[in-house]
Amino acid sequence: MQTVIAILRQPAWQIISHPIKNVLNWFKSDARHYQVLFQLTFLLYGIFALDWEISLIRFNLVILSSLGIQTLFILYKTKDWTGLKSALITSFSLCLMLEANNTLTFVIATTLAISSKFFLKINGKHIFNPANFGIMVTLILSGDAWISPGQWGSNATLMMLVGCTGLVVLLRVKRLDTAFAFIIAFLGLSFIRNILYLGWPMDFFWHQFSTGSLLLFAFFMITDPMSTPSSRIARIIWATMVGALTWWISTKMFVHTAPLWALFCMSPLVPVFDRFFKEKKFQWTEKTIS
How do residues 119-170 score in pLDDT, each as one tens digit? Predict the structure, then answer.
């Protein structure tokens, strides 16, 4: 009773601020909370601002499948329920990047993505970015899936949104070096070839730089702390190699989804870098397992 009286004597704003402060502290405690919020924002932006024709059934199916499969692994392997946050991030990545005609294709991609986190590991660390693995293997095997980078356009508003939110997430997980190394390598080689050597106009370069799909990849996929080298030096070298391979695939093979293919090809090198550049493995939280 005395506790209740003490609470009632407090100013109204102090009573209200306590739960708000607790929620904010919880939100700031895990960088995945930022990523979930921002990915959901991008998805809503695509649906309502860019007029995507996205099926809510597909959207819900991908999310529920990701959470369901992750739950099974949690029950029988990790016992770590914070892994559902990672599954939600993977599901949003699939919704943002993958296209297919058949609903079953999305289930296959989701199953591959989540399962890869538990079966494709070395020393307790993912070999592949889960979303990247699910998308690329589905593209190779299904014949029904595709990626549409053009759906993002080159809208300046989207650029600012991706850039600002990406910086927030990368500062939280300390992977800003990875994003910058990739961007500098890819765009640097593009600038040298297209502008300095071939003499193309700068408009072409700025258009290439301002594509939403490239920025989303640079800030939210290649920088996944669970599937990138643990050492900063190793990350910079590795990300530079991914950027160079992206440039080669897009320039020599004319593949518009070059960043995803480059990441898929270079991911198996991460354990090699970790072997020669020793560093503590990243953890989202102290209790995080996968």
Answer: 999 888 889 999 999 999 999 998 888 887 767 666 655 666 666 676 667 7
Pick from 21-35, 60-74, 192-206 the range whose average pLDDT is largest. 60-74
Ramachandran angles phi, psi of 44, nearest 5°:
-65, -35
pTM: 0.85
Amino acid in the structure at residue 102: N
- In this structure, the dihedral spanned by the alpha carbons of residues 119, 120, 126 and 128, taken in order and rounded to 10 degrees, is -130
Q: Say if residues 262 and 136 touch (Cβ distance below 8 Å).
A: no
Residue (of 166, 181, 185) closest to 235 by Cα position: 181
* Continuous H helices in 149-175: 156-173
Residue 161's contacts (CB-CB under 8 Å, 6 or more residues apart) are: 41, 42, 45
Q: How far is CA 190 from CA 134, 198, 200, 223, 250, in A?
A: 28, 10, 11, 21, 10
Structure letter (DSSP) for residue 267: G
pLDDT in tens, 157-181: 566 666 667 666 776 777 889 988 9
∠ CA 169-246-267, rounded to 5°: 65
